[in-house]
Amino acid sequence: MHSYHHHDHPAPPRGHGTLTTLTATSRPRGRARLALAVAVAAAGLLALAGCATGPTHPSLAAAGAQLPALIPVRDFVTSLEGTGNYRISPDGTRLAWMGVSGLQPAVWVRTMGQTDARAYPIRARSLRWSADSRYLVATVDATGDENTHLHALAVDRPGAGWVDLTPFGKTLSALVQTVQGSPDLMVTSNRRDRKIFDLYRVDPRTGTHTVVATNPGNVSAWIVDRQGRLHARATLAGDQVTLQRPDAAAPGGWRDGMQWNRFDAVRLLEAADDGGEHMWALSARGRDKKALVRLRLADGAETVVHASDDVDLDHALISPRTQQPLVAYSLPGYPRREVFDARLRERLDALAGGEPAEVSITSMDDSEHTLTAVVATDRGQRSYLLPADGPPELLGESGLSLVRGTLARSRPIALTARDGLPLHGYLTLPEGVEPRNLPLVLLVHGGPWARDRWTVGPTSRSMQQFLANRGYAVLQINYRGSSGYGRAFMEKAIGEFAGRMHDDLVDGVRWAVQQGIADPARVAIQGASYGGYAALVGATFTPEVFACAIDVVGMSSLALLLEKAPPYWEMGIAGWHRYVGDPARPEDRRTMDAKSPLFKVGPETRPLLIMHGVNDVRVTLEQSERMVQALRQAGRPVQYVTFQGDGHGNQRWPNNLTMYRKTEDFLAQCLGGRSSGFDYYQLGAWAF
Hints:
Largest sheet: 8 strands, mixed
Structural class: alpha+beta
CATH class of the domain at 30-77 and 403-687: Alpha Beta
Radius of gyration: 25 Å
Strand content: 25-35%
Number of strands: 35
């Protein structure tokens, strides 16, 4: 569930090169625990053998031996061999990446051209080098409660370990910028006031925090250049954003510059000239789709450099060295990239090999001659080193990519909603079976201001591949309100929670039935966050369409969502009010309650599996507790699972193992697909 907060605060990882790894907690007796777990497993395997269940749905049962082998659940939630998030140091001498050391998640570091790799255990969400290449900085949310800390590692110091640079309780800290020629970090934190973020300069050598700017209460973003100078700030008044530049002669020390509406989708990227008068930005000001523009900060004049007629630009990479664009990315169906440098285009195209792929540069040295890149597809991610001279070197691959040979293919699809709105999405069909009259899972993305992508990743947790392996057709619809398709498409979701947003999902199911792909009597709806809300809406508002539903960290009450929102959503809450209403207004609250599944539970409500992290601060546990209570009071079937030590999206592999196992067993009973049954990793999960 994304807030409309304009501050660049950490969210569940979304970048290229991420992977799901074994996330055992850091305990000195981990090996002994695993040894005991393995001993117990060995004693119990014979008794538990044969627990896998075959398909009962006629279309799958008829396929018999043609179905591919069941991939163990553990291969989807943990990997001892999978790696990712490779980052080259700015001086080009070292390489860092995320993987596993023994039984613990870790960051690995080695010298380029050598085999001196060393592991530093930590469960990080993201990883970055300091500009002087002496420190690694990891973003850590240890318990899923968004109490996010920055940890630093002095890679040159013998015996060094991770040091928490922001050891403040119940605060959220984020790395904004590294400082050229220095180990220093520009960091935002809400330690002073939970609702807003101040700007600090942090010295990782001493842990010293120097206040650069205090938020007067209306600053939604700080813009810092690579020299560590506060270049500008964005202030918010109602729906108007004003970009202000430091000016000692101006009232209050700030001079007003360009202005825009908060819903114009302006994202500042990098400086476009040495004087700092222009910046590169992704902007939808005066147009429907976000374009790459050169922006004059004084008055907002834009020069469009690259745009797409059909979709927003997803992201753009700017060269710090030349201050010119390198690559612009978009996603109309399969990934698309516009590479502005001919030599770089040649290098990235070679990695794709003529096949659809999202080829992303993940790091560069200061010369920008040596790069790391990720090639992401519908079946995993592979990481490469692109040296200044010579062919690409495969560095590693995600856990899912290690089993890519047994995975299904996803393809983009298009359809038309009942009111004529064009919709897009993805369809993943199970291998080894004719795509006719299959049980189908409608997998709904969260946000809702996000989108499903062709590549597997955080929005779906690779669930489409897991479900396809169990025998299901998997449909993902980018319903109205999804990002990526322009402002008009997004704004068609205003007032349409449990309305036309849900109609789009139902229309997707009808399309799959009309195509002959889906068995209309065996359709489930599943999702997390907003997707979990959609699943609850499906089970309560349209039980005639769905046989069952799976809700993960979804909201059952829209009013409760906003009343219990984290303090740092304060500046962005107007966006929620615009789309769903303000619960403080009685007329809005009545509308919100009418769109809330909690108040729609009845005798026709479909069977539900509800799962929730106990530390969730975005959609609090109370949302699921209330829904489960209402279902039980109504005598409706519900399974309820909570995850200790996690919040709005699991990080711990034992919790993900439980989530996947519960999912396959629930759907096997409801839709008639396959289940792998007991996974022997379940015996060891208690150790972590």
